[in-house]
Amino acid sequence: RDLAGRAVYPGFVDAHHHFCFSATWADLPQLRNHRNLEQILASVAAQVACTPPGEWIVLVGWDETGLAERRGPTRFELDEIAREHPVLLIHFSYHQGVLNRLGLERAGLLDRSPDPPGGLRGRTRSGELDGNVFERCFGHAEGVARRALSESDRQAWFATANRYQDQVLAAGITHVCDAAVPPEMEALYREWRARGELHVG
Question: For residue 2, what are the CA distances in angstroms to 6, 9, 10, 11, 51?
């Protein structure tokens, strides 16, 4: 067939893609373009204003190297504007995040127990938890927030996931190797496929 000078490429395979997590948080406000802590905290405050008390607030993509302060927000700063909502701000790397006090409590990370193997909680010089969570501690907190979201509105999860999938396919990616799939996300994958809506391999 004459393609009139255009080219056809095979679909790309993304060998390391946190697809199920990205599909979950795809519609959330992004923090990637924020340049200081004031902007980040203003975004959190905006979500507080439109979210019923007690529900999780999750925002994604902060990067301390792009912030004027060269650090991320702390639990104490988040507590000033979100006392009735558990808050999780996910780092762009997806290996760390920061929680407010209620977020730490909901995730079961507010106690004084030792950090689990492979996980770390940030602390002040006096030893008080500062809200930062890394690796396994972050993964646990993210899982608690993610399950709360998907369980509160399952249909909304599929709608968000389909929109994210459309973006992936538009980029030419037809298959992914999902680098981390918890059991509850595997169940969602199976349901997604049974619905006839999962088109990425």
Answer: 9, 15, 17, 20, 54
Radius of gyration of the chain (CA): 19
Reduce the DSSP state of residue 113 to 3 states and report it: coil
- Residue 58: partners with Cβ closer than 8 Å, 6 or more residues away: 25, 28, 87, 88, 89, 90, 145, 149
Cα torsion 170, 175, 178, 182: sign: positive
Residue 138 · residue 109 · CB < 8 Å? no
Burial of 17 (0-12, 13-18, 19+ CB in 10 A): middle
* Residue 189 phi, psi (nearest 5): -60, -45
The H or E element containing residue 88 is strand 87-91
Task: Find, among 184, 121, 176, the residue nearest to 149 by Cα.
Answer: 184
Amino acid at 199: H
Q: Helix, strand, coil: what percent of the chain each, to 5? A: 40, 20, 40
Mean pLDDT, consecutive 10-residue segments, the chain of 201 residues?
A: 87 95 91 97 98 97 97 98 98 96 97 94 96 97 93 91 97 95 94 97 95
pTM: 0.91
**All residues at 6 or more sequence positions from 126 whose CB lies less than 8 Å from its CB, including other chains:** none
